[in-house]
Amino acid sequence: MLKKLNLLAVGIKAALLTGAVSGSAAMANDTDEAKKVERIQVTGSRIKRTDMEGPAPVLSITAADLKDKGFNNAYDAVQSLSSATGSTQGQTMSGFTQNAETVNFRGLGANRSLVLLNGKRVANYPRAFNGESNVFNLASIPFAAIERIDIVTGGSSAIYGSDAIAGVMNIITKSGVEDNTLNIKGSSSDQGDAYNRQISFVTGGQHDDFSWTLALDHSNQDMLFENQRDWLDSRFDNPAKLEDYKEYAIAMPRSLMAMQYSDGWQYIDPTAEVCNQFDNLQYANRESRGYYCSNPVSGNNSVINDRKNSSIYATGTYELNSDHQVRTDILYWTSKSSSVGSAFWDSRFLRDEITQSNGYFQTEDGQYHYLTRTWQDDELGNKKASLYDESMLTASLSFTGAIFEDYYYESYVSYSRTDDTQTGYKAKKETASDYFVNYDESTGAASINWDNWWQPLNSDNFDQVFGLNDSESSASVLTLGSNVTGDLYELPAGFIAFSALVEYEKSEYDINVNPRTLKKEGQGWAGLTGTEGEGERSRSALALEFSIPVTEQLTVDLAARYDRYNDETDVNGAPTYQVGVAYRPTEEVLLRANWGTTFRAPDLHNVFKDPSGSYSTVEDEALAASCRAINANNPGGVLIPNADIASLTKTCTDDFNMQYTAFSIQSGEKRLTEETGESLTLGLVWQPTDSFNMTFDLYRILMEDAVRSYPNRRIMEAERDCLNGAKDGNSEFCQSIYARIDRNPANGLSSSYKVDSISSSFINAAMREQTGFDLSISYEYDLNKYGSVAFRSDYSHVLQTKNQEFTGDEVNVDYREDYKDNNEFRSKMTNRITYSIDDWRVTLEQQRYGSLPNDVDEDDWTQVEKRRYAPWFNYNLGVNYFINDDSNIRFGVINLRNSRARYDESENDSPYFDNGAYPGSTIIIGRQFTLEYNLQF
After folding, report:
1. How much of the chain is helix, strand and coil, in % rounded to 5?
2. What is the pTM of this model?
3. Which terminus of the chain has fewer CB atoms gathered within 10 Å of its CB, N or C?
4. CB 598 within 8 A of CB 674
5. Distance from C-alpha of 331 to C-alpha of 352, rounded to nearest angstrom
6. C-alpha span between 380 and 736 (Å, rounded)
7. β-bridge pairing 385-403 and 368-374
8. Run of H or E residues at 141
9. DSSP structural state of residue 707
10. How many CA atoms lie within 13 A of 801 on its CB side?
11. What is the pLDDT of residues 2-38, one digit of tens each?
């Protein structure tokens, strides 16, 4: 057993390192036993097996595991892993990438895990994740094509290069299929909605020297709205006690409202007749302000996107002769989806020529007004949805074989490209402004068009006010490489195995938004901004790896890699190293250690992002200090340069708030360098019998010089210090800070000297260090005539996380406990028990998500105390019945207890829980029933 263990570890590790899942041999040993190793490495029936263990921990999820767990897609499968402790984004979240599904290992970020397809890089999602970084969209991998998913839970830059800081996910597709498999699956919530339908067909065969596999997959997910859940269909579902807050919090929504100042702010009475013109509006009253039109129906936003995915995967291998093969792989995926969100307009979006302060503006009669309205369904019709059209093409050609009798090679070219088009109707800023508010260019006077304001839009008005916002993006990666593996020298304990790799890669991305989005046409969209950019980089890499059998019990792996970048950053070259040790004191025990350096080149969008804008909150320290000086009758303490005291006094009223919304402009930074770090794992594998297996791995991951955006808070604090003398105001640093901030002039309103726009970029600054452990136990027990039972438990626990936001800041050694910024789980566990008897197999899975901090802010009006939520549990059930050797039927229940995530009064925003941490789709859909039929012929 010892020799088998050693050979398997070396063989499988070689396959992982070289991506040789295309059929090339992983070792240069031509014995029968070595050939047996090659067969084993491309198959696997258990998630973690001792005969797959080496110095680095590797987790495998097989196609059978995916079916047993009842997952509908690869995203749900990977997100359920215990090591995926960080917050992430799925289709239940809004933002710049509403249709992307990502995973976050160890909480280091969705962009710090490398995703491979058959050992080769694939193109990232073409949109910038949350407007900043580049990530891979797991939704683009069809279920039917997956043979297994291998995950290296630790840094592997010395093997794979950039991005492999938190881990590597290698998605291995089916090959060598010689039968036909038809799979039909449907699911629905227990409320009869959120339908999901899937059908796939996999076939293959062999003719003479040619073998092929074909997989077709189609899925259709129905949209789900907030109002289809009784805990999301009303604003009063908010867990906070709104009656304890302010009056406007418990008043019905102001769906159509006009307000003017006359001895205090008062609503202008629209009359009931005006409200009745709209299908869903009613005449409402707020005691202290007056009458307005309100829509009592809420929850019209989608929380699960409508999505139709189709894919085709084909692979073929041709035996050129007994020593050489050629293989090609092609995967094409396309997706059409849509989401629905609320749309509104208010007087903050008046044309640029009209002076306003947070929506308050003066009309020609000297009165101050504020306008707001939510666009109603009868105004928007079928033009309310945002549409997403996406595709991915991945193709590779590889040549593999044996040379010089004892060496094996693989030479390959791989190309991957993703494309995305998004469309949706938005209100044009200046056109919508002119429709509701008349503006006289000669005098600068404004007057409200009350006829238009109190009327619903008809189709002609819609075409006048709205425009089609379309944008396109693409990303691609071209890889050429060649590697050779074999035996160098025979030691008493065995051969020194080696792998040598040379590789070239070129990556590109291009995001083009509608010209109006960035005000290149007109004055932009009302309340909508965007991000765009375009750039490319190329890199060349050399890598060497050795596996040295020091003794029959001790194996040492050494790896070194050098990546040379050709782009406009300061990265240049990046060497990385790795050392792994596997020691087997007995046949049942493996002790292992793996240490390596890591690096990550900056995301292309961090480098090439064009100046792009968004609305965000600023904390105006300098203006706040100036207002304190004004209110203390100390004009000498005013920090705002050359401020007009009379105008400043209008800003510095009693209700002045240093936190307000301003326009933020961010652009890429070409002076960025690489992120660096280290990864260390110490582990134990114990397999006393074929039916029991345990692995324990202690890990430490360090990441330094992490790229992050320079936050507005830092810029505003620096401006204050430059103006009050804490820093040299004439220094180059202070001059650069002044250049980032554009303030309003003295305008006679309460917006005088407030920040109009603030500019920022990206810097290498942050540090993160995490220590934790992974524990996995599996056990199978034969009950003889009563069947068999199998148990598996996977547990990950974060022991400590250290965080430093910027170089020079104090290191937060208790970041794991941080209530303000850290919404990552400290622990995560999955337990599964399977009972099999005759033609039946029943699986019950428990997913435990550890404690999580609530969402209390320092100025939280709910007065909820900071605390941690108790762990949350989810249960899934699956029942398989094997009709015969060729067909089976499976019934499953996801979220068996219809359990909602933990929450309290601090969760004030729909869906009233942290859906970046908890599995949002599972919770919002609720209890789901699935029925699946599988036929082989």
Report:
1. 20, 45, 35
2. 0.86
3. C
4. no
5. 48
6. 45
7. unpaired
8. none
9. E
10. 21
11. 333 333 333 333 333 333 333 333 333 444 443 434 4
